[in-house]
Amino acid sequence: MNIPEIRAEALGAGVVKRSTRMADGRELIYYDDPDTTLGPERAVDGRDPFARPETAIMRRDVLTGDWVSVAAARQNRAFLPPAELDPLAPQTPTNPSEIPSRYDVAVFENKSPSFGPALAGTDAAAGAVSAGADAPLGLDDLAAPGLGRTRISVGRCEVVCFSPEDSGSFGTQTRVRARTVIEAWADRTAALSALPGVEQVFPFENRGEAIGVTLAHPHGQIYAYPYITPRTMSLLSSIDREGPDVFARILEFERGSERVILEGEHWTAFVPFAARWPLEVHLMPHRHVPDLASTSTAERDELAPLYLRLLRGVDALYDTPTPYIAAWHQAPVHRGRDTARLHLQLTSPRRAADKLKYLAGSEAAMGAWIGDIPPETSAERLREAVASIAEVTE
Fold it and tell me: Helix crossing, 246-255 with 230-242: angle to 10°?
């Protein structure tokens, strides 16, 4: 067996990055806490290598212009396994999981990705072209008209494990661990943005079965897309319409409102003026930064306890944990970086302790939203819940 090399690199906040490979060649990266109890060595992935799935093919919806990645390999992903077979836990003799060694934070390439493993300009991408897919030709080509258009779903999908524990979420981590995850997000944003054919990088966390989560392990994901997503294209159009300083004006407008939830030196959390979801919070930096990789050490240091307090406040609303999607919107890799500001959009369909908002006719079919709860009412409840949470110091 070839033993993969482990490359170590010091990052900010005392975090150490250790890069290696899994048995099938996928990239695996450990991010060690500054106060880690782990040594520098890592166990080798002892599983037999298996063939990775073919890169998916995207199809263009001619009526909307959207690209849909048809990734059939995702049908085989794990679905609510028992804790003893957690695929994100460190490997044991009875659990041949994805991560061979004990870890603090771990990031690895998804086994069943929606995008990748082929990258633009690689032999794997060329093979997909010879099999009938259109070659990737750049962003201008994406908007070209025509029925039956296909493209290779080049890019990368990664899993970010916040902890080796078998249950929890970002909000259940310590301040030190949260800071390590933020450092990992920033590091991976920079690395994925440099991959050929990648146009946008999206870190996110899905939490709760009501959202569709199939693993209880505390984790998130990062998608590196071969196009600018529809949501971000709409955002760029809004910037063109409203002006290049629109994010600065939004922040000033919201900070002067009754919708502010939590405020620090570098970040403000607020319920947006036109919130769609029963529970929706935006978290925005006070200065313009296009992505997490561009944040300063001081901004990352403050983000860790502030974000933890916000998430714990969300959970304090009810007696049981609240399902949510935590979406980190970042500027595209090659466009709008001077105007599209990094921000978190936290949304939940939970409109009461025992009620969820389901997207039915108007929202799902027409994109015409109807809000169930006035944003000011939601903000007041969230402020009270966050106020009940002590400052995060550990």
Answer: 90
